[in-house]
């Protein structure tokens, strides 16, 4: 029996994949941004064999949120329990569990349980949480199903690549250039328009129009998580037609001679849109090459201007 004012809900889905495989998706939080649409970034704060403490950055009802949770992992029972340590308003408290059940046909049933309360037990705030939990739970379970069922055969659609530039300057100056994206419209020729909102320090909404080589402009919107002065991670929430996923990071490693700056991208190709974007004769290989060239071109341009900025201040 729950506490007065506590809502208890359950979402479930059946997956054509072994229960142990599905459990692995739930247990390994580092991969969540590539699996679950609401997840932007996850970091381990403490990590033991069966218990861990994590910080999650995610979207909820179009807002960027961050919180810390404790998790208890039980691989024998295929169960992961979680409880938020410090919830973000309008959530007063939240916890729950992932339960994976093996089915006779070799598949599995995934049950996602939540219990939560609203700040001041306010009805409007509770309704906001209801919507966020329902939307995110459905999104996460659908993504879990798709990733688990396609894990064996979809590797060609996923690519990760790096571009690195050496800078004779400080990590702080490079970081400042990358962090201050509101100035990119003046600093980067390929950026036609930019809007940056940072209501919570280090948690940014970045929307920008980017020019491509052929002169066309496309709009992207990302959530960015900033860690001065060594990395910025991000996830696009408005994507170009050729992608179903795009996460990335700017990674800075400083030494006595300067700093190495790496732009890393992880992308999933939208196979259904290849012909419409690249023509009827194009396949996955052409889409991979096109996406990598486009992203690397812009990343290297940004890194080049960041290098000039930092080296001028040395």
TrEMBL record:
Lineage: Bacteria, Bacillati, Actinomycetota, Actinomycetes, Pseudonocardiales
Species of the source: Saccharothrix variisporea
Protein name as catalogued: Aromatase
SUPFAM superfamilies on file: Bet v1-like (SSF55961)
Pfam families reported for this sequence: Polyketide_cyc2
InterPro entries the record matches: Polyketide_cyclase/dehydratase (IPR019587), START-like_dom_sf (IPR023393)
Domain of life from the UniProt record: Bacteria
């Amino acid at each position: 029996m729950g506490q007065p004012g506590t809502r208890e809900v359950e979402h479930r889905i059946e997956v054509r994949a072994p229960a142990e495989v599905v459990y692995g998706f739930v247990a390994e939080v580092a991969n969540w941004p590539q699996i679950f649409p609401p997840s932007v970034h996850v970091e381990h704060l403490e990590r033991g064999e069966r218990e861990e403490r994590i910080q999650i950055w995610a979207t909820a009802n179009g807002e960027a949120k961050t919180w810390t949770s404790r998790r208890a992992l039980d691989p024998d029972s295929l169960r992961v329990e979680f409880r938020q340590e410090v919830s973000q308003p309008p959530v007063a408290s939240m916890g729950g569990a992932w339960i994976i059940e093996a089915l006779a046909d070799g598949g599995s049933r995934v049950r996602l349980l939540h219990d939560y309360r609203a700040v001041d037990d306010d009805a409007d705030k509770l309704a906001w949480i209801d919507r966020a939990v329902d939307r995110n739970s459905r999104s996460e379970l659908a993504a879990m199903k798709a990733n688990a069922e396609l894990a064996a055969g979809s590797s060609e659609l996923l690519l990760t690549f790096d571009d690195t530039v050496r800078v004779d300057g400080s990590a702080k100056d490079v970081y400042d250039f990358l962090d201050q994206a509101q100035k990119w419209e003046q600093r980067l020729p390929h950026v036609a328009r930019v809007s940056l909102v940072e209501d919570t320090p280090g948690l940014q909404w970045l929307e920008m129009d980017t020019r491509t080589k052929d002169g066309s402009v496309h709009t992207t919107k990302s959530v960015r998580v900033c860690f001065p002065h060594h990395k910025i991670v991000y996830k696009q929430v408005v994507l170009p037609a050729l992608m179903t996923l795009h996460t990335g990071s700017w990674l800075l490693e400083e030494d006595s001679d300067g700093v190495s700056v790496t732009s890393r991208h992880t992308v999933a190709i939208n196979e259904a849109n290849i012909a419409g974007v690249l023509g009827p004769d194009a396949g996955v290989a052409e889409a991979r090459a096109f996406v990598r060239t486009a992203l690397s071109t812009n990343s290297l341009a940004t890194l080049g201007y960041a290098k000039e900025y930092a080296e001028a201040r040395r």
